[in-house]
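Archive transcription. Copying these from loose printouts into the bound notebook so they stop getting lost. Printout 1 of 2:
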Amino acid sequence: MTTRPRWEHIRGVLILLHILAVLLMALPAPEGAQRREAWNDPTVTAEFEAWSERLNHVGYETTPDDLKTDLFTLAQDFTEVRKTVLSPARPYARYLGTQQSWRMFVAPHRFPTRLHVELKQAEGEWETVSIYQDPDYSWKADLFEQDRFRSALFRYGWKSYSGARKLFNQWLAREAAVDFPDATHIRTRWYKVQTPTPEMVLAGEEFEGKFVLGQTLSLAPYRESP
């Protein structure tokens, strides 16, 4: 009777441990849902309204606010359990470089934002120099439309990314100070508007939006002294 070499048994155990680690790391992570202020965004609010309506149709009575409270508590509890369960697998995933740094999309963004960049001349009016994906206002468009930068612009349009947005605006000010020597100030704003319904698209209609998250910076500090 022949027996398998010891290494084959060890290899089998290692393969099973690897599969277990992959399965554990694949557990859904509601870590981004820990910022409760982000739940007040119109896109998120619309999702809660839609899901509370669906639940009411199947006999589970709830309201959007109650659903928010229940899911926020559930997300916190699940995140703590997930951290404990994953603690043995994290060093292994970090060593192999197989960590997932971004989350899957859970819903369409119904209230997207669009970057507007404006400059002001001395004693002049504001002049638009860049609107995201508008060929008529294309300053920095070659950079803004790159895949990785598009992802960054998406985040900067959320209120909760105030720190990253501030750094982005400061970088824009440095660039504008060089490209527009006669400008005195730069202003960034994000136009937020609900996506139209299919019927509105066919009729050529759209919702009225508004500018949010505006910031104005003087260009003087970003210019080198002569």
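Printout 2 of 2:
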Amino acid sequence: MRALAKSVGGISKLALRLNKSQSQISHLIGASPIKNIGDKIASQVEAVFEKPAGWLDREHYSIEEAQAIYRTDQGQSAILCRQIPLITWQEAREWNQLAYDYKPKHPDQMVATTAEVGSLAFALQVQGDSMEAPSGVSFPDGVIIVADPDQVAAHGSFVVVTVSHDKEATLKQLVSDGNKRYLKPLNPRYPIVEFTVNTTVYGVVKQMVVNFK
């Protein structure tokens, strides 16, 4: 509720939106609140701000809360790391629609990344061995990748992609040969697939995260 107050310009502005006195709202979310937010006021807040029922009962992650920030000697801020959502491969296909309202239900659904990525970046857990290489860069089953939809895929990029509308999203390397482009698995046991008009790229991989048990 404090975040909503900040978004409209403070407690007094929130009080106007809710048709309450400033003191009433201060008692709820002021510096030293003396009352809890009950179901009635919670429902009113959710209705006024067009939030779904129960929205105030769930934990939410803002961009500011999800970033670890330090300040330089010149007063400039720089992001050390940030939290991004760990989503499913099916959700990756729908991320353009899901991203803006997506809220993780559990802390395990957030992944820390130090990569320079945009606000719509997401993480995925690699499935299968098609990107396990006999040498060099390899993406073994179970590792976490960080992908950024705002990045432009180029020759050599690792991309989250579907080869056609009826296929599942997958991880492949984009390679160019003359005027043609291909999707290459790093495991030589799997075939190289041509990049066609039906191919959709959902994000460019910026980082791989390996967790050891």
